[in-house]
């Protein structure tokens, strides 16, 4: 087996487990730029956007776009409607990926996927953040409780009907506990707005 074949095999194996990768990641993994260029020209690897690559037959779904976003914008956190859709508590299918960034962070331009930037100040930006592994990539996302709190805290961004629907579905599917949600809502400045709906949906009288 030639060195080029070894490099190409290594490249394809990496992309099979990581879905997408940036060119600098591949270089750190030991893939030379010339190997990557040849693989693209032969159709073995697809250039998704500038500096971002995947296999031509890679599975594409809504979550895959999250991977591309965090590859391009490492400070981004999936939030609000995109996160609620990921947690399967709303039927809304946002045409843009909603991401939270800091007040002074640069809103990076991307041709794909389309983005909806939301600026959170501290402590709302950093707290109640977790990550999920999608196609081998750790994607920063807020917890479901935090997303619900943010939806009620930001009625100008998220329609109230979407917030209520998501809350109802989260409770009915037992993806959240009312007590935990209350704590997170208080921590994220949303308790006064969320409390009446939580009490109405959990009232068993």
Largest sheet: 3 strands, antiparallel
Which structural category do the helix and sheet elements fall into?
alpha+beta
Provide the helix percentage: 40-55%
SS field, number of helical segments: 9
Low-confidence stretches: none
Using the alpha-carbon principal axes, give the shape. Answer: elongated
In round numbers, the mean pLDDT is: 88
Number of domains: 2
**Which H/E pattern describes the elements?**
HEHHEEHEHEEEEHHHH
**Main sheet: which strands, in order across?**
1-3-2
Alpha-carbon Rg, integer: 20 Å
For the secondary structure, the number of strands is 8
Q: What percentage of amino acids are in beta strands?
A: 15-25%
The end-to-end distance, rounded to whole angstroms, is: 73 Å
What does this structure look like?
- With 205 residues, this protein is an alpha+beta fold.
- It has two domains: 3-54, no CATH class; 62-202, no CATH class.
- The chain is built from nine helices and eight strands.
- Strands 1-3-2 form a three-stranded antiparallel sheet, with helices on both faces. Strands 4-5-6 form a three-stranded mixed sheet. Strands 7-8 form a two-stranded antiparallel ribbon.
- Strand 7 and strand 8 (137-142) form a beta hairpin.
- Helix 6 (144-153) packs antiparallel against helix 7 and helix 8 runs antiparallel to helix 9.
- It is elongated and about 65 Å long.
- It starts with a helix and ends with a helix.
- The mean pLDDT is 88.
């Amino acid at each position: 087996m030639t060195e080029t074949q070894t490099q190409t095999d290594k490249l394809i194996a990496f992309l099979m487990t990581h879905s997408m990768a940036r060119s600098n990641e591949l270089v750190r993994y030991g893939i030379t730029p010339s190997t990557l260029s040849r693989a693209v020209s032969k159709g073995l690897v697809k250039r998704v956007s500038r500096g971002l690559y995947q296999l031509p037959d890679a599975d594409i779904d809504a979550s895959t776009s999250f991977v591309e976003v965090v590859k391009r914008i490492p400070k981004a956190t999936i939030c609000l409607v995109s996160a609620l859709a990921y947690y399967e508590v709303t039927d809304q299918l946002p045409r843009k990926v909603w991401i939270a960034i800091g007040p002074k962070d640069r809103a990076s331009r991307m041709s794909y996927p389309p983005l909806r930037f939301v600026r959170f100040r501290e402590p709302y930006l950093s707290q109640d953040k977790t990550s999920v592994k999608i196609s081998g990539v750790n994607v920063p996302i807020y917890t479901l409780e935090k997303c619900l709190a943010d939806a009620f805290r930001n009625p100008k961004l998220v329609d109230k009907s979407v917030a209520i629907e998501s809350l109802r579905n989260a409770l009915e599917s037992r993806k959240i506990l009312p007590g935990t949600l209350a704590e997170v809502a208080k921590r994220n400045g949303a308790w006064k707005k969320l409390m009446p709906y939580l009490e109405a949906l959990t009232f068993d009288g």
